[in-house]
Specification:
The structure is a single chain. With 113 residues, the chain is of the alpha+beta class. It has a domain of 70 residues. The chain is built from 1 helix and 6 strands, in the order E-E-E-E-H-E-E. Strands 1, 2, 3, 4, 5 and 6 form a 6-stranded antiparallel β-sheet that branches. The longest helix is centred in the middle third of the chain and has 15 residues. It is globular and about 40 Å long.
């Protein structure tokens, strides 16, 4: 079993100090989440490596960034049926965010779509 100080990827939470040094402990846990993008008709972009996310509240903003990046890469695509499907390292669903609910920032080319 992994506990504080664990650095095994996908084996549970990673306990971090300010610089995430091995063996450091604090109240912050960082977990790896996979941000898959799924569209209608079986289209999908799978996040095979995942991203370390410091807290559950950061999943929504990270899902928005993932969706914006995909949409900005193909601006003429109809993304209305797509969603970001977020899973933890054990494959448990943590969040779904339809692309139509994504919050846009000032750098996005997709605002208004």
């Amino acid at each position: 079993m992994h506990g504080p100080g664990s650095t095994a990827i996908g084996a549970g939470p990673k306990w971090c100090g300010e610089r995430c040094e091995p063996g450091a402990k604090s109240a912050v846990t960082v977990q790896r989440y996979h941000f898959h993008c799924v569209g209608c008709g079986g289209d999908a972009v799978f996040d095979l490596t995942g991203r370390w996310v410091p807290r559950l509240q950061a999943l929504g903003p990270q899902a928005d960034r993932v969706a914006r990046t995909l949409m900005d890469g193909a601006p003429d695509t109809d993304w209305s049926g797509w969603l970001v499907d977020v899973h933890d390292a054990r494959g448990r669903r943590a969040l779904t965010r339809p692309f139509i609910e994504v919050r846009f920032d000032s750098t996005s080319t997709q605002r208004g779509r």
